[in-house]
Amino acid sequence: MTALSDILARQIALTGPLTVADYMEQCLFHPAHGYYTTREPFGATGDFVTAPEISQMFGELLGLWAAETWLRLGSPAPFVLAELGPGRGTMMADILRATARVAGFHEAARVVLVEASPRLRAKQAETLRAYPVEWVERIEALPPGPLVLLANEFIDALPIRQFVRTPDGIAERMVGLDAAGNLAFGLRPGARLDSRAEARLAVAPPGAVLEICPLGLSVAATLGARLALSGGAALLVDYGHAGGFGDTLQALYRHAFDDVLAHPGQADLTAHVDFAALARAAMGAGARAFGPLPQGALLQRLGLDDRAFRLKRAASEADREMVEAARLRLAGSDEGQMGTLFKALALVHPALKEIAGFAPG
C-alpha cells in the first residue's frame, strides 16, 4: 500500500470505480503523490533510461533531422523549435549542439519547451543554461509561426482507456475495490465508443482489448491543425504499434516490471502508442503523415553508423565499446534493444512531399 493507494481507495468507495485513464492520471500527476511530481524518473538513479540518456547520438541525429526539415521548409525565420516532455533537457542540448554549424538555424530558432512541472523546468534550465529557452505548459500555448517539433517517449505516458470485447458487448475496464478493500480491475458493461472503434471491436475475438488514448489523439489533432495552418513538421518517437488489440498497460518500479495496481504513485505507468490512430487524428486535422517507421531504420537513414564510426575513431578502447553498445541498443532488434520496439511518426504540412528519414509520401 502507498499513500496514494489509500486516497484512491477512499475515492472509489465514495464515488465508484475509476477508468484506467483516471487511475493513470492520479498515479502519474497527483499534486502530492504522483510519480512525475515527486521523483526523478530519468537515468540510472530513476526507473528508466531514455534514448537521449543512452547516447548523445540520438539527440544529435534528431537535431540533424530538425535542421534538414527547416531547410526543406525554406529556412523560415523566425521559426519555433519545440520539444514535448523534454525530461532533463538532454535531447534538446544535443540537438542544439549538433545544429550549431547549420548557417542561420540558431539565429532563426525560437526554442520552446512544453513542460508543466516546475521541478523539471528547473533541471532543463540548468542543462540548457547556454541557450535562450522559453517554456509553455500546453501545446496550444506554443508561439505562432512555422514549427519544428520533436517528442521522445511523451505519448506513452498519457492516460489510456481500455475497452474489452465480451460475449455481452463492449465493456470498459475499470479500477475498483475487491472484497478486502484493495484496488482491483473490473469491467463496466455497456460502454459506447465512436463508430469506427465499435466496428473494430465488433469483429474482434472475445476478450480483445482496445486501448484509446484521448489526450494522445488530441495532441495529434492539435499538431495536425497547427502544421496545416502555419507550416512545419513534428517527429514523434515512442514505443508502440501501427494499430491492433492488446493490454499494453505496464508499470515499472525500481527498474523492474511491476503489478500495475501495486505501487500507485511510486511506479511509472505507460502504454504502447497506437501510431495509426495518431496519424488518422493528425490527417483528419489537415496534416500529412509519414510512418510509423522503426526507430532503428530512422536512425540508420539519418546516419547513425557514420556518427558512431566517427565517435569511435577519436575514442579510447573502453569508450569505443560504449559507443558500439549504445549504437546497438538504439537501433538493434534483439530483446532489450530499441530498434524495432520503438517507432517514429512524422507529421508535416500537407504540401511537404518528402521528409528526412522517411520514404516519399
Account of the 3D structure:
With 361 residues, the chain is α/β, with parallel strands linked by helices. It folds into 2 domains: 3-35 and 161-211, no CATH class; 39-158 and 213-245 and 268-348, Vaccinia Virus protein VP39 (Rossmann fold, 3-Layer(aba) Sandwich). The chain contains 14 helices and 16 strands. It has helices spanning 3-15, 20-29, 35-38, 51-54, 56-72, 90-98, 105-108, 118-127, 195-202, 214-230, 275-284, 295-301, 304-313, 317-331; strands at residues 18-19, 79-84, 109-114, 133-136, 147-152, 161-166, 169-177, 183-189, 209-212, 232-241, 250-253, 256-258, 268-270, 273-274, 288-294, 342-348. Strands 2, 3, 4, 5, 10, 14, 15 and 16 form an 8-stranded mixed β-sheet that branches. Strands 1, 6, 7, 8 and 9 form a 5-stranded antiparallel β-sheet that branches. The radius of gyration is 21 Å and the shape is globular. The mean pLDDT is 93.
